[in-house]
Design goal:
alpha+beta; 4-stranded antiparallel β-sheet; two-stranded antiparallel ribbon; 6 helices; 6 strands; 44% helix
């Protein structure tokens, strides 16, 4: 029988729940808080957080280096698992409002994809918010989504799968 054995440094949080009736034990387990890494703080007070492992499976096995990227709102404790489609929809709306500024944001995404920090990109390209998702949020969340994609597709395509898709959608060149 094959084992799914992973060797990774882990940070363990002690948890002690006494066995009980089915309903009581289930409720105790359901009240365990999520463990997340805070990786970015947005000017809105929201946070970009990741959890590892993220749950992706390859050929029935848990992908040990996968993680999920959330936007966390401390005010209402909301966790938003933002998707590529939500960001693309937002960029499409922005593009209808202001083609020039949206193209600047997309080229800012390209800078982040090439390894620049989002804060530097915002400053260097003088990016502004033009409705919908804040530019800072888009750049910072994609930094981490692309890290996740690079872990899941380590042969080079990783982040470029979605970045090239965005460029193609808006007929822009790399």
């Amino acid at each position: 029988m094959s084992k799914n054995l992973f060797n990774h440094n882990v940070h363990l949080i002690p948890l002690n729940i006494s066995n009980s009736t089915q309903d009581t034990f289930r409720m105790e387990l359901m009240n365990i808080p999520y463990l997340l890494y805070e990786v970015e703080v947005l000017s809105t007070g929201e946070k970009i957080v990741i959890n590892k492992p993220g749950g992706k499976r390859n050929f029935g096995r848990l992908a040990k280096n996968d993680f999920m990227v959330f936007i966390y709102s401390p005010t209402d404790e909301g966790l938003w698992l933002i998707s590529h489609d939500e960001i693309k929809d937002d960029l499409r709306c922005k593009y209808q409002q202001n083609k020039t500024e949206t193209e600047k944001i997309i080229y800012g995404l390209l800078d982040v994809c090439n390894g620049m920090e989002p804060e530097a990109v915002i400053k260097n390209r003088q990016l502004v918010n033009i409705g919908g998702l804040e530019t800072e949020k888009i750049l910072k969340v994609y930094k981490w989504i692309w890290g996740q994609e690079d872990c899941n597709y380590p042969n080079g395509e990783g982040r470029w799968l979605s970045m090239n898709g965005i460029l193609a959608e808006f007929n822009l060149k790399n």
